[in-house]
């Protein structure tokens, strides 16, 4: 490719969602991906497209998430057609279980805050009997008091999504350079220059840094602060079984192939992607309290990944004032937000400015001046 | 198709139940080899629903998964026979709910 219009640093879900969206809008995009040992949240993902419960501390995030979930079916259709890869997306709604009456009341309270005093649109509270009626093939454990149900929630195979987005970028004429870890990013008279492996150079007027946890280190030499931290999540997965869960649940979902994924822990352990028996025990115990029958299932794998978290958990989209054409884009919810990234965020980046809800996602929000 | 080698030594035997039928097995052989001799396959896969037979016989390929003494998805090539053992093929996706 001659000099691209955009270079995207990071071929994970966030990076290729944007590259796909920009390429669809007529831009020539070159994506560069990191090394084999880099941290890859996109390949450890649970696979939820999840709305309910998000954005309690950041209303714009709740709206942005809901917008993405609404865009998802159309995004899926176009992506599958473009890439030829099915991503196993379904939108049957989703459940978040409560394991006591008190927890069920607390859950309602949290959701009512997000909804501004009432349950958000599409969200309902189910008591135990109503919940069991929705899960006829999954007898509930005695501790389950009920659940919240969100009609917008769904799930997808996150690895197929990643593959489809990467294939989509290539199909639309974009380029992906694998094993091209960025050594330096610097400004030139006409934009930016990246140095990669063996001194290779790439130049473009526009650069999007979507490198997950590596983002901060890439932009720090330019004096740009990108406050991200890792949070480990461990998962268990069972053997493939006959369908028992007709919809994804917070922490439990049955995939299209029949495996049940059991997740996920929230651990502050730095850049450690190990797995532990202690976490496996916690995950298995909670799963068995919800669905005791899972005790008869074989666990076939345990793994972990590192979430990419901002200080308030919301997305971090920044176009630093002194660096026109440069963006940093990172978030925890790359799968849920894939649709809105490929559509709305790609449009805003092309237009050169964040508008509407995304203005709240700039890094500036963490630099509120404190009164003297 | 599969049978003991002609020169394999005679030894003590046990009786196991392959899908309900009593079968004489040699002490020391595995549930997988009993399945190979008597039914030829161990399972039907859960997604593509195609037949599979024990293959590697050393715990690597997982194609010999079967139900042994009521416990599903057991690697039958790693389980030596025992008097009274029940062995059954696994036909398609398992159900953990009755």
Model description:
The complex is a heterodimer of chains A (372) and B (98). With 372 residues, chain A is of the alpha+beta class. Chain A has eight helices and 18 strands. Chain A folds into three domains: 6-81 and 158-227 and 312-366, FAD/NAD(P)-binding domain (3-Layer(bba) Sandwich), CATH 3.50.50.60; 94-151, no CATH class; 229-309, D-Amino Acid Oxidase, Chain A, domain 2, CATH 3.30.9.10. Chain A is 28% helix and 23% strand. In chain A, strand 9 (184-188) and strand 10 form a beta hairpin. In chain A, helix 2 crosses helix 8 (338-351). The longest helix of chain A is centred in the first third of the chain and has 25 residues, at 59-83. Chain B is mainly beta. Chain B has one domain (13-84): Roll (Ubiquitin-like (UB roll)). Chain B has one helix and eight strands, in the order ββαββββββ. Chain B has a five-stranded mixed beta sheet with strand order 2-1-7-5-6, with helices on one face. Chain B is globular, with a radius of gyration of 13 Å. Chain B starts with 12 loop residues before the first strand and ends in a 7-residue tail after the last strand. The model of chain B has no long low-confidence stretch (mean pLDDT 93). Chain A binds chain B through residues 137-139, 239-244, 257-258, 293-298, and chain B through 46-47, 72-73, 92-97.
């Amino acid at each position: 490719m001659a000099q691209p219009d955009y270079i995207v640093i990071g071929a994970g879900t966030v990076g290729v969602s944007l590259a796909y969206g920009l390429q669809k809008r007529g831009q020539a995009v070159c994506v560069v991906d990191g090394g084999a040992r880099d941290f890859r949240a996109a390949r450890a993902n649970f696979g939820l497209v999840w709305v309910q419960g998000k954005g309690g501390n950041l209303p714009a995030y709740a709206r942005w998430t809901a917008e993405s979930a609404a865009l998802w079916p159309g995004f899926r259709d176009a992506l599958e057609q473009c890439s030829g890869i099915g991503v196993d997306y379904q939108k049957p709604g989703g459940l978040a279980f409560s394991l006591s009456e008190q927890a069920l009341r607390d859950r309602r309270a949290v959701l009512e805050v997000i909804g501004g005093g009432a349950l958000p649109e599409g969200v309902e509270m189910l008591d135990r009997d109503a919940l069991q009626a929705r899960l006829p093939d999954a007898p509930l454990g005695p501790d389950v008091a009920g659940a919240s149900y969100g009609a917008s929630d769904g799930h997808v195979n996150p690895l197929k999504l990643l593959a489809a987005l990467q294939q989509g970028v290539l199909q639309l004429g974009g380029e992906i350079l694998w094993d091209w870890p960025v050594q330096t990013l610097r400004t030139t008279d006409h934009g930016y220059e990246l140095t990669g492996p063996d001194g290779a150079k790439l130049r473009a007027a526009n650069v999007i840094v979507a490198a997950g946890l590596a983002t901060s280190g890439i932009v720090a030499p330019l004096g740009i602060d990108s406050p991200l931290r890792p949070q480990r999540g461990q998962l268990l997965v069972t053997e493939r079984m006959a369908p028992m869960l007709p919809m994804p649940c917070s922490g439990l979902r049955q995939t299209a192939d029949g495996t049940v994924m059991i997740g996920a822990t929230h651990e502050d352990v730095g850049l450690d992607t190990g797995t532990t028996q202690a976490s496996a025990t916690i995950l298995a115990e909670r799963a068995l309290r919800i669905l005791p029958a899972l005790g008869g299932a074989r666990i076939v794998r345990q793994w972990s990944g590192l979430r990419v978290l901002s200080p308030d958990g919301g997305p971090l989209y920044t176009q630093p004032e002194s660096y026109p054409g440069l963006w940093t884009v990172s978030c925890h919810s790359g799968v849920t937000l894939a649709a809105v990234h490929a559509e709305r965020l790609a449009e805003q980046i092309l237009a050169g400015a964040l508008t509407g809800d995304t203005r709240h996602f700039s890094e500036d929000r963490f630099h509120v001046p404190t009164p003297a | 198709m599969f049978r003991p080698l002609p020169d394999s030594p005679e030894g003590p035997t046990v009786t196991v139940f392959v899908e309900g039928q009593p079968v004489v097995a040699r002490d020391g052989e595995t549930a997988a080899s009993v399945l190979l001799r008597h039914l030829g396959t161990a399972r039907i896969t859960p997604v593509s629903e195609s037949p599979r037979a024990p293959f590697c016989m050393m715990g690597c390929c997982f194609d010999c998964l079967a139900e042994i003494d009521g416990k599903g998805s057991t690697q039958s090539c790693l389980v030596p026979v025992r008097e009274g053992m029940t062995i059954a093929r696994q036909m398609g996706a398992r159900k953990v709910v009755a």
